[in-house]
Amino acid sequence: MNGMEFAGHELARASLDHCVKCTVCETQCPVAAVTPLFSGPKFVGPQAERYRNGESVDHSLDYCSSCGICTLSCPQGVQIAELNSQARAVMKADHMPVRDRLIGQTTLMGKVMTPFAPIANAALGNKPIRTVVEKVVGVHRDAPMPPAQHQSFEGWLKKRTAPTAKPTRGPLVFFHGCAGGYFEVETSKRAVEVLEYLGYEVIVPKQGCCGLAQQSNGLFDSATASVLKLCDQLRSAGQGLTIISASGSCTGMLKHEAHEIMGVTDDRLADVAVRTRDIMEFLLELHEAGELPTDFRRIDMTVPYHAPCQLKSQGIGMPAIEVLRLIPGLTVVESGRACCGIAGTYGLKKEKYEVAQAVGRPLFDMVRQTNPEFALCDTETCRWQIRKGTGAQVEHPIWMVHKAYGLSD
């Protein structure tokens, strides 16, 4: 990307003049509500965009978390968050911090940490080491970090015993994402086991990163290369096959961010995006078609559920709640809170950590009041943030479906 041009500029700018300065986005912004360091989505978005000529007029723009709530709440359909993300990429083009390049290398981190999981986890829990990392790299010493796993998802696939039951419904492609491949391995395993229980043949092609962390840090060139390479990998599994993912954030990259923010118009992305389903979205579609077995075991439990921002940006509602309410005895309480604060890599950065924690505090309080031991959320980084903020076990909703089908205790 030319540093003086906005990637996807025309897509978001087409909505610019629809802004009537109603300030709805300002009242809904979770970041502006907790810090004066951010001037607010309207000011740094459509208002400032009218005066930009290759540079941002307000560097508080970097405190936008890109949660997307402003776009979702705008009654005029202005793509505020998309404008902000594009402008930030231009603003940082000639002085991209080394840290922002490093934390976008999620697959590399997984590959490095997995073989040395005990050592990596000891380092993550060591305050002096984390303090040095904060000073040298810029990742806050208390930022939520995922524990390294002793086995990757790919490693589990290679060693597992193949299902004895023959598929009855045909093939699906499973997209696990970087976190699902290295850090949230159990979630990926349970997702595959549920799909196989339902009678599907699950194909898992070799796959890399979707580029989301790179995109959110303004590295549009590398993010574009990553997402298109991933599209090639997913397409290699077979034409026309539905692609299922238990990574809500990575699904969002394929279905929203790559096109709406970076302006990727490649036919490969369009093909993959239209075939990709969040796993809970897919299960709800099966239920609505009368094709989802509902012989669930009873689970007497009350669980708080938080719908992450990137799930909301896909416009699919909250399918997890509708599916989970089919389970006898299970009471699901939607958080009603706007954002957990982490926003991908935003809350990891030393200058933004306290802002992220302040944004997430109402959600943390809600979880503690509802069930201080267990909660549900669809995206990985949001789960890490909620775990850190509450001490609760926080898992993907597919965990409850897996248990209700009798596939786990």
Automatic annotation (TrEMBL):
Keyword Hydrolase assigned: no
EC no. given is: 1.1.5.3
What the entry lists under InterPro entries is as follows:
4Fe4S_Fe-S-bd, 4Fe4S_Fe_S_CS, Cys_rich_dom, G3P_DH_GlpC_su, Helical_ferredxn
Q: Which GO terms describe its molecular function?
A: glycerol-3-phosphate dehydrogenase (quinone) activity
**Family matches, as Gene3D superfamilies:** Alpha-helical ferredoxin
Q: Where is the 4Fe-4S ferredoxin-type domain?
A: 10-39, 53-84
UniProt keywords, alphabetically: 4Fe-4S, Iron, Iron-sulfur, Metal-binding, Oxidoreductase, Repeat
Listed name of the protein: Glycerol-3-phosphate dehydrogenase subunit C
Organism of derivation = Brooklawnia cerclae
